[in-house]
Amino acid sequence: MTAQRSRHLGYGIWLIVASLVGWWAAFQLTVEKIFLLENPGGQTSCYVSVMLQCDKNLGSWQGEVFGFPNPLLGLTGWMAVLVMGVAVMAGVRFPRWFWGLFGLGVTAAMVFVIWLISQSIFDLRVLCPWCMVTWAVTIPTFLATTVHLFRNGTLTRSPGVRERAGRLMVWVPLATIVAYAIVIAIAQFAGLDLLGELVGLVF
Questions:
Q1: CA neighbours within 13 Å on the CB side: how many for 47?
Q2: Contacts of 14 (CB under 8 A, 6+ apart)
Q3: How many independent structural domains does the chain possess?
Q4: pLDDT (0 to 100) of residue 19
Q5: How far apart are alpha carbons 134 and 136 in whole angstroms?
Q6: Residue 70's Cα: distance from chain center in Å?
Q7: Does the keyword Transmembrane apply (predicted)?
Q8: Which pTM value belongs to this model?
Q9: What pLDDT is stored for residue 115 in this prediction?
Q10: Helices marked H in the chain
Q11: How far apart are CA 17 and CA 88, in angstroms?
């Protein structure tokens, strides 16, 4: 197995892992949404505190921007990521336009997540556990996909740029941690003790 093939396998494995985690989070949010529809005024199983809950997000207009619950986007979108992950693992070669469309989809998901994060922190002022799981896998998926599109020639034809992009993939985990830290810092600045709530949720 060539070194390039090995690097691409790592990306494929991540897409599969991220898609399964993201899909499960979307599924749980869908179940909670159905529960709220059947039990108006009820309390979901992911309600931890006034600040850490899914209820307020699911019941808001931000929770159904396109006229239907946002988790339905996750149920379909993450399946596309899973298919791409399996295809990469199998060594399937896609044309540049196909990778470009996939990149646009991942970028759109990232933009949507950034907007949802801002709405959750500054408008709704609550932190949704399953939503945060979605954020947690979308961010590194976007970063890894961006690097991959440079190194596989989708975004550039320059051999030098592609080679340098290949070396950048190892920095995606660190960039992800920095992104998480920025979200936590923004939440703290907004008066939401995100770090404290996360620690309380785990322990």
A1: 13
A2: 85, 140, 141, 144
A3: 1
A4: 98
A5: 5
A6: 13
A7: yes
A8: 0.91
A9: 97
A10: 3-38, 55-58, 71-90, 96-118, 129-151, 159-168, 172-189, 194-202
A11: 13
Give, as one character, the DSSP assignment of residue 66: T
Q: What six digits make up the tokens of 54?
A: 């899914």
AA letter at 169: M
d(CA 168, CA 180): 19
Q: Is the pLDDT of residue 1 over 70?
A: no
Give yes or no for a contact between 71 and 64, defined as CB atoms under 8 angstroms apart.
Answer: no
- The residue segments making up the domain with residue 126 are 3-202
Question: Distance between CA atoms of 72 and 101, rounded to whole angstroms?
Answer: 20
**C-alpha–C-alpha distance, residues 65 and 77, integer Å:** 16
CATH number for the domain harbouring residue 105: 1.20.1440.130
The tokens describing 135, both together, are: 């954020």
Return the structure tokens found at 119: 């709405």
Give the separation between CA 34 and CA 39, rounded to whole angstroms: 8
Place of tokens 């994060």: 117
In the chain the first and final C-alpha atoms are separated, in Å, by 43
Higher pLDDT, 8 or 124: 124
pLDDT at 50: 84
Question: Rounded distance, CA 144 to CA 101, Å?
Answer: 15
The residues, any chain, with a CB within 8 Å of residue 138's CB and separated by 6 or more, are 18, 22, 109, 110, 113
Q: How many CB atoms lie within 10 A of CB 74?
A: 25
The string of DSSP codes covering 125-146 is: --B-HHHHHHHHHHHHHHHHHH
